[in-house]
Amino acid sequence: MKVSNKLIVLLLSLAFIFVSTFFSFEEKKIFWHLYTFTLLVGIAIAILFGKFKDELPTWKYILFGIGFGTITYGVIRLGYILLKFVDSGSVKAIKKFLATYGPNNIWHYLLLVFIIVIGEELFWRGYVQNALKQYFSPILSCLIASILFAVAIALGGSIPVVICAFLISVIFGLLYEWKQSMPLVIVAHEVFVLLLFLILPFIRY
């Protein structure tokens, strides 16, 4: 596929993800259905056009994934604690966002763990970030992919959540560039969401 064709596919893919994510946030009652569908399509796009790296043995990506997922959780938790002291309005905005879109039953958690986390990593890291490296440096590609992901989340209307999404995306994007392992970032992301929503939740909504 020529570079120009690859760029067209990238732009069309991003357009679909943005439009579908917009409708997902608009239709609050069926958000989980629509967002899951969005990422299932994202997974298909990533499989067709992406390139996944896996340069670590299984025990290493599991070990590193648990470690970096825990570190990411710690960073977000610390940021939330500090935010409570400096901007209570942002804390309320985060709680409102999670009350509307956060997981609240076993079905949501299953979708989050088995489709949404995997879909976000395969699409934004495995496809978008790698595709951008044809035009930019790896670090800049990571930052641009993280900005694009944050823009998608911004459709939900919560600036504090957007900042959080951007920060998490940068962490996982840099981790992917450093260790060159898609399973690693998936494990890290899984550990992060399990800690955040199930094991050690610190946001009550």
From TrEMBL:
InterPro entries: Rce1/LyrA-like_dom (IPR003675). It comes from the Bacteria. The keyword Kinase does not apply. GO terms for molecular function: endopeptidase activity; metallopeptidase activity. Residues 104-192 form the CAAX prenyl protease 2/Lysostaphin resistance protein A-like domain. Keywords: Hydrolase, Membrane, Metalloprotease, Protease, Transmembrane, Transmembrane helix. The chain crosses the membrane at residues 7-25, 31-49, 61-86, 106-123, 135-153, 159-176, 183-203. One of its GO terms (biological process) is proteolysis. This is CPBP family intramembrane metalloprotease. It comes from Ureibacillus terrenus. The lineage of its organism: Bacteria, Bacillati, Bacillota, Bacilli, Bacillales.
